[in-house]
Known about the structure:
The protein has helices spanning 2-9, 24-34, 39-44, 49-61, 78-93, 127-145, 164-167, 172-182, 189-194, 213-219, 224-244, 249-260, 286-289, and strands at residues 18-21, 65-68, 115-117, 121-123. It has 292 residues and is mainly alpha-helical.
Amino acid sequence: xxxxxxxxxxxxxxxxxLLYSDHQNSVDLIxxxxxxxxxxxRLRNMNGRSYYRWILRLAQERPTVMAYTxxxxxxLTVPAQMNREADYYASGAQRHIELxxxxxxxxxxxxEYTLYTAADGWIESNTRTxxxxxxxxxxxxxxxxxxxxxxxxxxxDTLPPPDYPYSRALSAxxxxxxxxxxxxxxxxxxxxxxxxxxxxxxxxxxxxxxxxMQHIFVDCxxxxxxxxxxxxxxxxxxxxxxxxxxxxxxxQGSVLLAAKSLFSDNAVTWPxxxxxxxxxxxxxxxxxxVPK
Length: 292
Ligand SMILES: [Zn+2]
């Protein structure tokens, strides 16, 4: 940007301006390109190419001499002293950033098609990484919101699910059950009926409801007593751990509430208003309900 500014300010009649810079790369590049050495191919993949194109356009309009001067030098030559002065004002400007005018973005010298997002601005380089990132994000959000939000675990915990339920499973059965639950492949009546393996998707334990994972693990009355007993055991064990950690009653409240409401559709514990404890392998409850 400093090059652009210098070239704009030096416009007019008179001798060709002499422009010093301590940025060796840009001085070399501009030299080469002004000498017409493989101009387009040099710039095609370069970071900040729109700025270089802008500089070159200005430098071609008016012959300019670019010269390199070493940065942070104690020499007493005029270029070294001018460089020190420029550095001094540049670092001073950091303390008054609000007074520094915003540099325009050279959209006029960008590639014909350039990626843009409101959050990131113009993306001139590493477009492959950029596109990859947005495609994975898009796929992840599709997966999260489809499949009955089974993959939307990020709202509870942004860490990837631990792999120990698989790598340290007590049996192959428990690892498979976990894998089937997360991929929606447990043989519920709903899944089997949708594949023509059962005539009805209603609960095989007699409820007037579709036998989905949600139904079996959270709603099915057949397992109500198990949920009540396990929740109270969980609350008791959690209370012991919290007491050992020396937490006050107040601090214990929210953790105990979470333990108590783990198996029910409590809006505080479960922001989606539906309990998904069976998707969290670390709980290890799921095996109890799935017949071997
Ligand atoms: Zn049922």
